[in-house]
Design brief:
The complex is a heterodimer.
Chain A: H1 3-38, H2 41-66, H3 69-86, E1 93-94, H4 97-125, H5 128-215, H6 231-284, H7 288-305, H8 308-327, E2 332-333, H9 334-351, E3 356-362, E4 370-371, H10 376-387, E5 395-404, E6 407-414, H11 421-428, H12 446-457, E7 463-467, E8 474-481, H13 484-499
Parallel strand pairs in A: 3-5
Antiparallel strand pairs in A: 2-4, 5-6, 6-8, 7-8
Helix pairs in contact in A: 1-5, 2-3, 2-4, 2-5, 3-4, 4-5, 5-6, 6-12, 6-13, 7-8, 8-9, 9-10
Chain B: H1 2-39, E1 50-51, E2 53-58, H2 65-80, E3 83-87, H3 98-107, E4 112-115, H4 121-132, E5 139-142, E6 153-156, H5 159-173, E7 180-185, H6 193-208, E8 216-221, H7 229-240, E9 247-250, H8 253-265, E10 273-277, H9 281-288, E11 294-298, H10 300-317, E12 323-325, E13 328-332, H11 336-339
Parallel strand pairs in B: 2-3, 2-4, 4-5, 5-6, 6-12, 7-8, 7-9, 9-10, 10-11
Antiparallel strand pairs in B: 11-13
Helix pairs in contact in B: 2-10, 3-4, 5-6, 7-8
Classes of the chains: A alpha+beta, B alpha/beta.
């Protein structure tokens, strides 16, 4: 039922109640007025009776006087009328004084009309004595009946007057009682309308309250209970649905914000590591550009002088440092990384007269996979510094890159002094490899490499160190996904990170 | 659907409760109104009781305590026999004569008439006319008889017996100083019962009188043709009679009370010995104070009931005893206490 229909019903029923009460009161008032109207009816009819009786007597007198046919006709008519009137009178013997009077009037009237009839007959028959006597008798009876009618009329009048007073007073009482009833019913009616409209409006009020609550920011407000099928019910349902949608939206936003926060955190961490690396590099390299240019100038000089080896050496040096400077902000391919390792080993072997035996076993198909830059060189440098530098036998370093089950496994193995398990654990947990005062050639330590790899691939097992103990050599294993998609995704994130 | 059921249930409850409250308010209001109306005494024509027979009681002396008492007992007796007695003329504004009332009764076709005749010869004719009417209306005479008429029965006291009783009371109060005994009559006709009572008293008293101590018994007729005659006539006796009678015999209740009042007014209480009739409160109190010597009380209750019984008996069996005797009780100082506490006018 719609609100409009409901309100119309409230109005209709309230009006109908008042209307019914009014109808009832009017009916009562009319009834009382009618009773008042009827009060003197008995007197009126008795007066009529008396008039008719007089008419008989007069008509008879006139007939006796004139013997006119008109008078006779009038006599019979009035007698008939009188008989009709007296037939309505009581003819039972009762203990009611007035009814007994009626009975006596009726009986005497009967006697009277017999006498008048006989008198008229005597007149027609010309029996003078008889009709004169009859006239006298009728006169006497006429006076008796009139006296009885008069007495009865008086009694009726007394009672009627009393009743009239009572009814008149009762009319005033009725007015008073009716007004009281009307007021009481109106109060009930108002109450009814209030209760009813409140029932209709209550869901609306509840809706407004909840809407206020929600607009104040409380999205956990209770759902509105839908109790009606009217417009408010429809609006309440829509509101509940809206509230639900808002909650869902908020939840989704929260989740995405959380993801973004984690990403951001990761990026910031990465950046901080890179910044750290860069700082260390800058501390180590005062002016790399001056160094590259100088090295290039050196290489050209060596070329002009025909010193080809020197030229090659200086070129490799320049490449090595250029890569470090250039690639420090971005990731690179595995191929570039291997190139840097080659350059580094070449430089070392020139420096230390082919002391290091470097072997590569590489699956060339996977060399285009992207990995964080400056990762392999620091590991190889580490193997040289802490591995084979400290042994007397010929140092060997072996680099293996192979694809295995959708993964690329990079191994850097040396035959150097090896590591204890405790030391391995320390390194894996972020303890610096460098001894006091010793800096790596690029300024990037193993610790930095591990952190960057872990962040880049989002897992911890990307980097592993194995050693069978002191003097047993060390193997570093990097396991990265071969799936180009993942690599691409990571690259995008990484690039955005750098630029950001 | 559940929502709707819940909603409509609540609406129905509200409607029902409100409807109930409205009905209760209206009912209370109208009940209060009806109570006020009932309390204000609206004369309702309550269903009257119907009776088989309609009797008329006709007497010149309707308002006297004796006849009121007779009427009450007649009414009570009639109710037992499915009859209603109307004290004819009592509610009319015109004070009709006895013969007028008889005429009215006959023309009203009542079923029976209880009549106290007043000695008027016209009454005899009317009694006969009633008897001859079709259907016949039986007439029972009460207290006074009309032996020459076709009345069906007489209920009352034998005037001879009554005269004897009065005579005895008079003889009781007579002493050596008694010279005049006066009997108050209400009727002129010498054939009536009252005259017979007077004759009896006269005979009994004169039998006691001697030449040395003669006692004069006289009758004074008090004209009752118009109201207040008794009172005026009795006062006149006290004013004009020289000497005032020593014993005053009253044959009806009004005369007795008037004589007593006059004796008080003329300071002759004790000097005039009053023998009264009927046992009204005033008379009984006067006897108690020794102001009235004695009174003869007719059993009014018996008068009423016997006359009604006689009428019904005649109507139903067309035959009834010619005479019903009614007890007469003498009340004097010795036995007045038995009658005093009784507030009822009817005396045993």
């Amino acid at each position: 039922m719609s609100i409009r229909t409901k309100l119309i019903w409230v109005f209709v029923i309230a009006s109908m109640v008042i209307f019914a009460i009014n109808l009832f009161i009017y009916q009562r008032v009319n009834q009382t007025i009618q009773e008042i109207d009827e009060i003197y009816v008995s007197n009126v009819s008795l007066n009529e009776l008396s008039e008719n009786l007089s008419a008989i007597q007069n008509n008879m007198y006139e007939y006796l006087n004139t013997k006119g046919s008109g008078a006779l006709e009038n006599y019979y008519r009035s007698e008939q009328d009188y008989a009709n009137l007296t037939s309505q009178l009581n003819d039972n013997t009762t203990n009611n004084e007035m009814q007994l009077l009626e009975k006596n009037i009726k009986e005497m009237s009967d006697s009277y009309t017999k006498v008048t009839d006989a008198t008229v007959q005597a007149k027609r028959g010309g029996i003078v004595e008889k009709y004169k006597q009859g006239y006298e008798d009728s006169k006497q009876l006429f006076s008796y009946i009139n006296e009885y009618i008069y007495t009865l009329n008086n009694m009726h009048f007394n009672i009627n007057s009393d009743n009239y007073k009572v009814l008149l007073a009762s009319l005033q009482y009725l007015e008073w009682v009716s007004s009281s009833i009307l007021i009481a019913i109106t109060v009930v009616n108002i109450f009814l309308v209030i209760v009813w409209t409140r029932n209709v409006i209550r869901p609306l009020v509840k809706l407004a309250q909840t809407a206020n609550e929600v607009s104040a920011g409380n999205f956990n407000a209770d759902y509105i209970e839908v109790t009606t099928e009217d417009e408010i019910g429809v609006v309440s349902r829509a509101f509940n649905k809206m509230l639900e949608s808002i909650r869902e939206y908020i939840q989704k936003t929260k989740e995405s914000m959380e993801t973004e926060r984690i990403m951001k955190e990761k990026e910031l961490l990465m950046e901080s590591h890179l910044k750290d690396a860069q700082l260390q590099y800058l501390q180590a390299q005062i002016n790399p550009h001056f160094l590259f240019n100088s090295l290039n100038a050196g290489a050209q000089l060596a070329m002009m002088e025909g010193a080809e080896k020197t030229c090659l050496f200086v070129e490799k040096m320049a490449d090595f440092f250029r890569y470090n400077v250039k690639k420090v902000h971005e990731d690179s391919t595995l191929e570039e990384e291997v190139q840097v390792v080659d350059n580094y080993i070449y430089i070392l072997n020139v420096r230390f007269s082919d002391e290091i035996h470097f072997e590569k076993k590489i699956d060339w198909h996977v060399l285009q996979v992207r990995i964080p830059s400056i990762v392999l060189q620091p590991i190889v440098e580490n193997a040289v510094k802490h591995g084979i530098r400290e042994i007397d036998r010929a140092g060997k370093i072996r680099l293996t890159i192979a694809k295995k089950d959708n993964k690329i496994v990079i191994r850097i193995k040396d035959n150097g002094s090896g590591m204890t398990q405790d030391r391995i654990n320390e390194v894996m947990n972020g303890q610096p490899m460098e001894e006091d005062g010793q800096m790596s050639s690029t300024g990037i330590g193993l610790n930095n490499v591990i952190s960057r790899l872990r962040l880049y691939y989002g897992r911890n097992d990307v980097f592993d160190i194995r050693s069978d103990g002191p003097d047993q050599g060390t193997e570093v294993i990097i396991t990265i996904p071969a799936d180009p998609e993942i690599t691409d995704g990571k690259e995008t994130a990484h690039v955005s990170d750098i630029t950001g | 659907m559940k929502i709707r059921a819940h909603d409509s249930k609540r609406t129905t409850t509200i409607l029902l409760v409100a409807g109930l409250v409205i009905v209760v308010i209206m009912a209370l209001g109208m009940a209060y109104y009806n109570r006020i109306i009932a309390g204000s005494g609206l004369k309702d024509t309550a269903a009257p009781q119907n009776f088989k027979y309609h009797y008329a009681l006709i007497t010149d002396d309707r308002s006297s305590p004796l006849w009121q008492s007779v009427y009450a007992s007649a009414q009570a007796a009639a109710a037992e026999q499915d009859a209603y007695v109307e004290l004819l003329g009592s509610n009319l504004s015109v004070d009709y004569s006895l013969s007028d009332l008889m005429r009215i009764a006959i023309d009203s076709h009542v079923d029976g008439i209880i009549l106290e005749p007043n000695g008027d010869p016209e009454i005899v004719n009317l009694i006969n006319e009633a008897a001859a009417a079709i259907p016949s209306i039986p007439v029972i005479t009460v207290l006074e008889d009309e032996t020459q008429s076709q009345r069906k029965s007489f209920v009352g006291v034998n005037s001879y017996d009554l005269g004897q009783q009065y005579g005895e009371q008079v003889l009781d109060v007579i002493d050596s100083s008694t010279k005049n005994v006066m009997v108050l009559l209400n009727e002129e006709n010498e054939n009536t019962g009252q005259f017979m009572v007077f004759t009896q008293i006269k005979e009994m008293v004169e039998a006691q009188s001697t030449a040395a101590h003669p006692i004069n018994v006289t009758a004074v007729n008090i004209n009752t043709k118009s109201p207040f005659d008794s009172e005026e006539a009795i006062r006149e006796i006290f004013v004009k009679s020289k000497p005032v009678p020593d014993v005053l015999v009253c044959l009806d209740a009004v005369d007795t009370e008037c004589a007593y009042q006059s004796a008080i007014d003329f300071a002759l209480v004790g000097d005039v010995k009053i023998i009264g009739c009927y046992s009204s409160d005033t008379i009984l109190k006067a006897i108690k104070m020794n102001n009235i010597s004695a009174t003869l009380s007719l059993d009014a209750k018996q008068l009423g009931s016997e006359s009604v019984k006689a009428l019904t008996e005649y109507i139903e069996s067309n035959n009834v005893s010619d005479y019903f005797n009614v007890d007469v009780t003498v009340i004097n100082k010795n036995n007045v206490d038995q009658f005093l506490p009784v507030p009822d006018e009817t005396a045993k």
